[in-house]
Amino acid sequence: MSLTDTQIKGLRPAQSPRKYSDGGGLHLLVSPAGGKLWRLSYRFGGKQKTLALGAYPAISLADARLKRADAKKLLANGVDPAQQAKIEKTNRLVANTNTFAAIADEFLAKVKREGNADATLTKKQWLIGMAKAGLGERPIAEITAAEILVPLRKVEGQGNYETARRLRAVIGQVFRYAIATARVQNDPTFGLKGALTAPVVTHRAALTSRKAFGGLLRAIWSYEGMPETRAALQLMALLYPRPGELRQAGWNEFDLDRGIWTIPASRMKMRREHRKPLSSPAISILRDLWKLTGRGRFAFPSIQSPLRPMSENTLNSALRRMGFSSAEASAHGFRATASTLLNESGKWNPDAIEAELAHVGADEVRRAYHRASYWDERVMMATLWANTIDQLRNGSR
Question: What is the CATH number of the domain that holds 354?
Fold first, then answer.
């Protein structure tokens, strides 16, 4: 005989547990303490088994009957309902453990282990922090493209189009890490590539005419500020590295006798060691600098502490004090200036210039060719570029 809600509500506990059947193996177990627990008895693999379905009234009579029907379907398909319940419980626990925040933290730890630069790690942490605000507690496998679009639109709505683009990219990196570690099946950011406003590319300020560049060089060589800052600006002009590569340089990277600066992979954008030939003027500047900072680790220490490198704002601030606006010159702009003038000269293989700039193309063979085959040409280019610097400083065109 089937149970009714009225009957269930009227059941009272006895001194021992009592069962009240609803048919088809479903029954309500009333404990001596008064608890009313749904149970399903069934046979699987020749053995008698019992499946717990939950407590009444949280699981109503109607709910219990639906669960009985679902269990019968599983049995008809040769699946043990109890085993299936365990699998689903495990999946729920895994989903709740594998939140976006948890996976993102794993990803950041991996990035750190791989030796990424501190600046790169800081940027990723900042962007992931923005993503965590809305996605952090969500199981990563349940996150949809529409959910990801919410924080992206928020950033975009503030006019930060480049930040929104980078945020989408780093969220995608977290998802691809989750795919690689078997926590999700796909990356929902892939379909959002065309959803964001494309940022307007703003090139860093650089003086690319010989006359204007000559004026900048004269200002640098006569700069009356800190001698370390003057030396750094002189070397930016002579060597045109990325600013961070120079200001964080340690003295152990320079072989002044052989005229080679070896920048470690950890500080290179492409995470590959990069060697740069040093011209005689560059070596002379470094030897003079050694007298000032050679006792410490950094060639260009911070004025606040010799244990830290020069601030990223120091070089640009010096350019402003010399009268060059942010629209005219920047520390990073020396690279564009050198690239433009070296290419315009027609004296050098464009690939040798790209190799000196540590630019990397898509073709692996070409990359290897850059690193290995243009050294002699780059040594000569460094010398003649130093001569060009000297000529432009003296007003020659």
Answer: 1.10.443.10
What single-letter amino acid sits at 70? D
User: Are 16 and 108 part of one and the same domain?
Assistant: no
Burial of 184 (0-12, 13-18, 19+ CB in 10 A): buried
Cβ burial of 85 (10 Å; 0-12, 13-18, 19+) is middle
Residue 246, domain extent: 210-393
Candidates 123, 154, 210, 359; catalytic one:
359
Residue 370 a catalytic site member:
no
Average pLDDT, the chain: 87
Q: Do 177 and 226 have their domain in common? A: no
Per the residue annotation, which of 27, 68, 242, 393 is the catalytic one? 242
Question: Are 238 and 379 found together in one domain?
Answer: yes
Cβ contact 23:61 at 8 Å: no
Question: What confidence tens digit (pLDDT) does each residue in 175-204 have?
Answer: 999 999 888 889 999 888 788 877 654 455
Phi first, then psi: give them for residue 375, nearest 5 degrees.
-60, -50
The residue count for the chain: 397
At 53, which CATH number?
Answer: 3.30.160.390
Last residue of a domain, one of 18, 44, 79: 79
Indicate if 335 belongs to the active site: yes
Is 92 in the active site? no
pLDDT tens for 29-55 read 999 989 999 999 999 988 999 989 999
